[in-house]
Amino acid sequence: MPNRIHPGLIGFTILVYIFLTGPLIIVIGASLSDTTYLTFPPQGLTLRWFENIFEISAFRRTIVTSLQLAVLATALALIVGIPAAYALNRYRIQLPSWLSTLFVLPILVPEIVLGFSLLKSVAVGFGTPIFATLLVGHTLLVLPYAVRVISASLASFDFSIEEAAVSLGSPPLKTFFTIVLPNVRSGVVAAFILAFITSINDVSTSLFLTGPGISTLPIQILAHVEQFFDPTIASVSVLLMFLTVAVMAIVERTLGLTFLAK
Amino acid sequence: MLKRFAGWTLAAPATLVVAVFLILPVAATIATTFAEPGGVFSPYIAFFNSGFRRNVLWRTLQISLATTAISLVIGFFAAYVVARAPGRLKSILIIAAVFPLLTGVVVRSFAWLIILGKNGILNNTLTGLGLIAEPLSMLYTQGAVIVAMVYLFVPLMILTLVGVLENIPEDVIQASSSLGASPAATFRQVIFPLAVPGLIVGAVLVFTGSFTAYATPQLLGGERQMVMGTLMYQRAMVAFDWVGASTIAAIMVVITITVVLAMSRVARRLNPMAT
Fold it and tell me: ipTM strictly over 0.90?
């Protein structure tokens, strides 16, 4: 190895990683504490705060709403995003170059501004139901992931395979589902996971769009922290973290995690 | 005939979604700030005439600039080590950076409430060690918001920069050291300049993210450390001053987009790999 790394740098990096993982370990520890207040290291071990999550109806309801929103928004984003990603690659010459920028606009515009604008123009303007407006917001929020990740895997797809199938008489739609889509499967899975995690953790877009009776889990956690400071919050946080681990395990299984570093 | 429009047909649904539900509503929000009876710029004059709101804008800029600078330094050195780590260790380090990134903002900010609170871990440890007599008030300070934001954005910075540092060809580094440059000189004169475009991308992500943040300043800064995001929420949902909230939204959009455009120009100009 021609380039040795200075030991000071290694020590620094270890400290950085302690800084990165420490707080999450503290949340897990605090969720297990047998005290009525949040503390770390935990005093006595109990799982009752996890049971407590499901005894609070607001958490039960918002967990369901958040899961529904994440699944539906991701599905909608994929339904409109996959054809768009395909068009961006297959018909590159026909389409203006600003179109790909348009699809990442939801990342460029501050989320909180998007949420507020949807409240003003859509929820109040047209009186759409709360859940529908939330779904619109979340679909926009995750659309860039659907388009960009799938576009990236389509970029390495050899479209002459598709042409071969079509010239041999396969109908276009069937060709897409049997030839193109299986080849970008890993991209679709990655897009799904990124979109799902983005939606389920979102605060800023949902902030203005939740209303009486309908809220999302992160917003409910924020509201709960302001009134109570008990380990239930830590256990809900751990629940969200476990969901992330589960989703990441699927990614790791299907395509390896290194794609996230790109 | 059909073929000529195939691309547009396929891209139409996504284009419509963005146009109808993003561009139009956000444009409407900004447009309403120019349609006030008091004059075209009256909401902006009111914003900048209020010492309180000027302070909020200034504080938000300070917090996001500090967060960006600290994350850049931490992220760059950590990413340098991660990029040079041997295979298996490297994947572990990348996963360890991805995991917090995929954990929600609320959860990660909440962790700092447990650490920095009056009876939090840090105060308990410091009093236990006899370093301080009374617990310090660390929550609801600018420092608390900055620490939590740095925590939020360092993983993003590491992942962005690992990708950039890995793309620096090994030959370039070897050439530099075989021509007699010390490791420190190679780092300063070869690796750092090649990483500048990546540093700019990372800085833009962190700056825009922290400038428009809501959950972290709300949890760790509260009313005392109001920033643009929390002020906007307060104007809209507590004071029902929608024009005021729209004005804050417009200022946020202008600042974010200006920073993104300006920095991507700078990145293009500074890229030493470009011809």
Answer: yes
